[in-house]
Each structure stands twice: as structure tokens, then as C-alpha cells.
Design goal:
The protein has about 650 residues and is α/β, with parallel strands linked by helices. It is about 25% helix and about 25% strand. The longest helix is centred in the middle third of the chain and has 25 residues.
Length: about 650
């Protein structure tokens, strides 16, 4: 491998964690990853004999494997860029992906939301049948007898049977002495099992996010959530945002197949683990429901996406879809379907619809905002029997991307920040109380709010260069130090000696930006201004379009994984939301995930969701006459006297 030292810093982008490692010189891959505070498995201590520290190198030009990698990795893995980090030297800028199986600690993925009570009426139901052997005197086909018994005993009329189920039917009937259970969906037999298995009826609900995937194992008989799992969307390796993935998929059919296959595999593995943990066979999964934004919906099903990437950004279909799970290569019962609620518009998908359904804002009295914060933030304004929605490109900054020391919500990420207004000493809280390794979305938002509150930045987001509490790097860029790598959770990261304006403490210590410290930079502040400005613009345009003021809003519901962890006070203090009483703000967690479970469990909720989709109006922000004016204003931060 090339050990040659390169000039300047070497930058390694690490997905799906969203962290960037900066190296001064070529470094062993495992040492670089561990040194950055990322937990990666290594049983053999970097000797290349355990094979646990697998990474995927996303570059086109990858060094050939060495003899140890050839021994530990399959040919398919090698061809697809898999290497052992301990056997690699990071000697140039590159992007790597660390599979979940290689990470020693999982990221903090929010899958839970505020549950809703509903009447369980699943689209698939099981029926126990005791059939009779056919005789010469009374010959009757297997399917004919099943149809007759279902009609006579349960008043169920069969219109169709899945072809794979039909093929397996004779063996199942005879091996189980004519005692069977059939699963029926909308007049179609989708599975057959031996004996009475009516008590074992399971489904899977999926919230397919741009960054995260939430998977829920559900009991279709009683509607209970048996288990859940959050995983990173592996499509991140093809782009942080929706448009990057659309552009990749548009290149050629092979690219579309590749980006589809990785997300399918991620869902398959998640389902497999949930089933194994709960002693369930994947063949017992009778129904799936998947919600996601329109691009995720298309990429999961392998639909062409060129029309999504070009104006006027129309979806392929505006109706709900029911697709055989096996057509998407997901292991379930032979004839099981995946139900996908309808998207609302080109960039407002069924995940937004699921959020509206689960929060119930469509039927609340008064005016309510539903804000589902993510890489794309969807906002709905419901009032007077109408619903209007917009989509804002808030970007991946809230996930830690495009932030110098940003990372996703993994152990060691700074998630809470308080700056003492007298001493300007920051106190930080990290995820799982691990030593500081970087900063995630909620910590970045807190930091900007605190910098503004303490006067270290002004309403334009510019650092106060007269402050004695900022450091400068070798490019003369002003920054604020949050922590030193390895600082314990909650520690005060600067002592109380007062630094001078050049960043040097009075005394022997130096306050330097170049010692590997974790800082907030001017560019980081701008990234948050852009993200919050996009969301505020969406809110303001919705209000203008409805001809109402913010004082007319009766409540704001914040949804989404990121929305679960942010401090509502700081959300207002940076101007993402106009000032409102904190009692009007509620955080409901993964509302889209709750909605996916509702449409999995209830035919009635499916009909309601489809009705909501038809009456929801989509507003395209960029063609709204006052869009530019709103966005310029929304980029500004509040004045100190406006902060609560």
C-alpha cells in the first residue's frame, strides 16, 4: 500500500455516522477510526485475523486486497470495496462506509412515537379449516373445498389465490391430515399452513427515512408492537440528500438496481433480526406497510426517478400501491403484500401523510402546524377543514453533516450545550455519557442558540470578533471551543483564565483551534441558518397563503427523530419558529412510524389516509411570489432582546 506522505490534511468521510476524520499524515485505517472516537469491532487488536473491522471504501480506485484480506473476505466482498480497516492505510481523501455489523455501538435512532389507540381491523385474516379427504364417491378439488368451507363457515368469498400458495397447497393439506389454516387478503388466499395457526399472525411496518429506517414487528391479532429496530439507510453511501440519490439512480439501470438493492437488503436484515429475536419465521409475516418520501418510495420499488429530478417534479402514481413482497425480494409469507399509502406530491410522500394521520391535525379544531423535521422537512398547516403542505430542503446539517466536527447521534456525540453567560465556559452533555467525539444535530442547534444568547454571535450569525473567548485557526477563522476530544461528559472544557483577543490565555496555557479541539465554526453557524431558514420560510409562506398570523396558530406539533431531541426553547431562540408559548408546542417522536403501524393494522385507517391525501393541497415554495423575501428574512437570527 502507498505509505507516501501527502501534503496537507487528509480527509476521511465516514458513513453512516456522518463524521469527517482529518489526518495530518497517512495513518492505519483502524487507528484513524478509533482515534476519532468511533467504536469499531476488533477482536484481534488489528492483526487482520478476526475480520470484524470491515469497512466499505466508496472510491472508484481501491487498493487491491492484501493476503490477509483475501483470506478473510469473500470475492464478492472484495469486488464491492469491502476491506479490513486494520489492513488499510488512509493516505488520501476518501469516503468509507462502516456497516452496522462492524460498529461496536449503535447510533441513537429514534423509532418510537406517541401511540394511537385504534380498532384493529387488519387487511389479512386467518381462518382455521378442517377439510375432508376427497373420495371416489365425492371427488373435490383442494381449492374448491377450501373455497366452499370458507364460504359456508366464515362467509368469506374467494376471488383469487396466490400462485405460489396454490403450488404448495396439496403438500400442506396432506402432510397435515387435512387440517390447515389459510390467510386471506381482500378475497385472495396469500398463505396456507398446517394445523391451527390463527394465533400467530404478524405484520411489519416500516418508516423508510432518507437517513434512518424504523422497522416495527406487529401482532395483527391484537395490534400490539412486539418489537422495533432502527437502522441507518444504507443509501447514504450514494448521497446524503434525496437529489444526490436521484442523480445517482438516473445514471443508468445498473445504478438504479444498486441503490434499490442496498435499501432492500437493509430492510430484509432488519426484519430477519426482529423475527429471530422473537422466535418468528419470516414466512409468518402476512402483510407489510411502508411509508416514505416520494423518492424513497420510488427507489425502494425500483421505479425510474428521472421525472422526480426534473421540473415539475411529479410522482409516478398518486394512488396507494399493493405490491407482492417477493417482487421486491423481501422474505415474507408467499403471497404477502407491501401496502404503500399514496404520496401527496413530488417531494411530499406517504411519510408526511402518515404524520398527519397519526397526529390527527386534520381533525383538530383550530389552526395547527405539523412539522416533521429531517433532511427534507415537511410542514402541514391544518385548519378550517383544509390541509396545505410544503416541503423544505432543510439539508443534512441537523444530522451532523456539513458541520466541521459534526456526526450523527452516536455515543460520544455532544447533544446538549450550555454556555455560562459570565465565564463563557461551555458545559456539554454527550450521548451515553461517552467522551466527546463530535457534535450531533441537537448539540449544534443548542450551540448556535447559546452563542446568540451570550452575544458571541450577532443576529446575522457573525462571530463577535472583539470577544476574548474565541479562538482562531491558521486561516484566521474565528471559532468557539466546545470540548477537547476525550473530555468527560458534562465537563467544563475551558478553565476560567481569561484569554486575550488572539486566543492566548493569560498564563502558560494556549487557547488554540489547532489542537484537535471540537469547535463551532462560522461555516457551521451558516449551515444552521440555512437549515432553520428553509423551515421558517415554509412556515411563513403557509401562513401568508392562508392569510393568517402566527398568533392564530393554536398549536405546533414537532415530529421526526431529530424533532424528538431538540429543545423547543432553542428552536424559537434561533428563529426557526416564531415566538409562541412553550405550552403550544408538543413533540411526538416518530409520527410517521406510528402512522405506518396504523395503516398496517386497520383497513379503516387506510381509507382515512387515502382521503387525507386527496384533500391535502401541495404548495410549491420556490414559485411562491414572496419566497425570496421570506428566505432572506428567515436566515436572520433573532435580536438578543427577543430571546427567551
Amino acid at each position: 500500500m502507498n505509505e507516501k506522505k501527502v501534503q496537507g490534511k487528509i480527509k476521511i468521510d465516514v458513513e453512516p455516522i456522518g463524521k469527517r476524520i482529518s489526518l495530518e499524515k497517512p495513518t492505519n485505517g483502524l487507528k484513524a477510526i478509533v482515534g476519532a472516537g468511533i467504536g469499531i469491532k476488533t477482536v484481534c487488536g488489528g492483526q487482520g485475523v478476526c475480520g470484524k473491522c470491515r469497512i466499505i471504501i466508496m472510491d472508484k480506485n481501491i487498493n487491491p486486497p492484501n493476503s490477509r484480506e483475501e483470506k478473510m473476505l469473500s470475492k464478492s466482498e472484495i469486488d464491492n470495496g469491502v476491506r479490513l480497516s486494520c489492513q488499510q492505510v488512509f493516505d488520501r481523501d476518501m469516503k468509507i462506509y462502516i456497516p452496522a455489523s462492524s460498529l461496536s455501538e449503535e447510533q441513537k435512532l429514534q423509532v418510537k412515537g406517541v401511540e394511537k389507540e385504534l380498532e384493529v381491523d387488519p387487511p389479512v385474516k386467518k381462518y382455521h379449516l378442517k377439510l375432508k379427504r376427497s373420495t371416489l364417491e365425492k371427488p373435490e378439488s383442494d381449492l374448491g373445498q377450501i373455497k366452499r368451507v370458507l364460504e359456508s363457515e366464515y362467509n368469506i368469498f374467494i376471488k383469487d389465490i396466490d400462485f405460489e400458495v396454490l403450488k404448495m397447497m396439496p403438500d400442506v393439506i396432506r402432510k397435515n391430515s387435512w387440517d390447515v389454516t389459510v390467510a386471506v387478503r381482500d378475497g385472495e388466499i396469500i398463505n396456507i399452513e398446517g394445523g391451527d395457526s390463527t394465533e400467530r399472525s404478524y405484520g411489519i411496518a416500516v418508516d423508510l427515512g432518507t437517513t434512518k429506517i424504523a422497522i416495527f414487528l406487529m401482532d395483527l391479532n391484537n395490534g400490539k408492537t412486539m418489537d422495533s429496530k432502527g437502522v441507518m439507510n444504507p443509501q447514504i453511501s450514494f448521497g446524503e440528500d434525496v437529489m444526490s440519490r436521484i442523480n445517482f439512480a438516473m445514471q443508468d439501470p445498473e445504478s438504479l438496481d444498486k441503490i434499490q438493492s442496498v435499501v432492500v437488503e437493509g430492510i430484509r436484515e432488519g426484519i430477519k433480526k426482529l423475527c429471530s429475536k422473537n422466535s418468528i419465521k419470516t414466512s409468518e409475516i402476512l402483510e407489510m406497510a411502508v411509508v416514505g418520501n416520494t423518492a424513497m418510495h420510488h427507489l425502494l420499488l425500483g421505479f425510474p426517478v428521472r421525472h422526480l429530478g426534473l421540473s415539475p417534479f411529479v410522482t409516478l402514481a398518486e394512488d396507494p400501491l399493493s405490491v407482492k413482497a417477493r417482487e421486491v425480494k423481501i422474505d415474507t409469507a408467499p403471497g404477502a403484500y407491501i401496502y404503500i399509502p399514496p404520496p401527496i406530491a413530488g417531494f411530499v410522500g406517504s411519510d408526511h401523510l402518515a404524520m398527519i394521520l397519526s397526529t390527527g391535525i386534520d381533525s383538530m379544531k383550530g389552526n395547527y402546524l405539523g412539522v416533521d423535521i429531517g433532511t427534507n422537512t415537511e410542514i402541514a398547516l391544518a385548519g378550517n377543514g383544509t390541509i396545505t403542505s410544503v416541503s423544505t430542503a432543510s439539508g443534512p446539517a441537523f444530522e451532523g453533516a456539513q458541520i466541521r466536527y459534526g456526526m450523527r447521534a452516536a455515543p460520544g456525540a455532544i447533544e446538549r450545550v450550555i454556555i455560562d453567560e459570565d465565564t463563557f465556559v461551555p458545559t456539554v452533555q454527550t450521548i451515553n455519557d461517552k467522551p466527546a467525539a463530535g457534535i450531533c444535530g441537537s448539540g449544534i442547534l443548542d450551540s448556535v442558540a447559546e452563542l446568540l444568547r451570550t452575544g458571541l454571535i450577532n443576529e446575522r450569525g457573525k462571530f463577535n470578533r472583539d470577544s476574548k473567548y474565541l479562538c482562531r485557526d491558521d486561516k484566521d477563522e474565528y471559532q468557539f471551543i466546545l470540548a477537547h476530544p476525550g473530555d468527560d461528559n458534562g465537563s467544563e472544557v475551558l478553565d476560567k483564565k481569561e484569554p486575550d483577543q488572539k486566543g492566548e490565555k493569560k498564563g502558560s496555557d494556549k487557547l488554540s483551534c489547532d489542537d484537535g479541539v471540537i469547535t463551532i465554526t462560522q461555516k457551521d453557524v451558516v449551515e444552521i441558518q440555512l437549515a432553520k431558514g428553509a423551515i421558517r420560510t415554509g412556515i411563513d409562506i403557509l401562513l401568508e397563503n392562508a392569510d393568517i398570523n402566527f398568533k392564530d396558530i393554536d398549536g405546533i406539533i414537532i415530529a421526526g427523530a431529530f424533532g424528538s431531541y431538540i429543545d423547543p426553547r432553542n428552536v424559537m431562540n434561533i428563529g426557526m419558529f416564531p415566538m409562541v408559548g412553550l405550552d403550544k408546542i408538543s413533540q411526538v417522536g416518530n409520527a410517521a412510524g406510528v402512522g405506518s403501524r396504523m395503516v398496517l393494522l386497520s383497513n379503516g385507517q387506510r381509507r382515512k389516509a387515502e382521503s387525507i391525501a386527496k384533500k391535502t393541497k401541495y404548495l410549491e415554495l420556490t414559485v411562491f411570489p414572496s419566497f425570496t423575501d421570506h428566505f432572506v428574512t428567515a436566515m436572520q437570527l433573532p435580536k438578543p432582546k427577543e430571546i427567551i
